[in-house]
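Bit of a strange request maybe. I'm writing a small parser for structure token strings and I need a real example to test against, not something I typed by hand. Could someone generate the tokens for this chain?
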Amino acid sequence: FSHLAWVQTDRKSGGLGDLNYPLISDVTKSISKSYDVLIPDQGIALRGLFIIDKEGVIQHSTINNLAIGRSVDETKRTLQALQYVQENPDEVCPAGWKPGEKSMKPDPKLSKEYFSAI
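Reply from user aminoacidic:
Good idea to test on real output. This should exercise your parser:
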């Protein structure tokens, strides 16, 4: 019920509005236990975000305490970086990388080209 109310509330009113992905509920706490975010004595989960590839491998995770929210912009940037390196396997994205910016080679000597340009 709370998920339904959340998506039926527009974003400016604190809701999620229309989403293009499903929301799930973890009534049995099995998901939060599996990802080691459950606070057992409180029966609640930390704020966890996991980006999992098609093979089921965690490519990125962020776990915050209950008082700290997660950044949608940083999640989007991370997804874009993951997509970029998937399409360009001989490149890596430096911290803060955004689409259209230079990436670098995962090699100490070759990465000097990137660092000399910034």
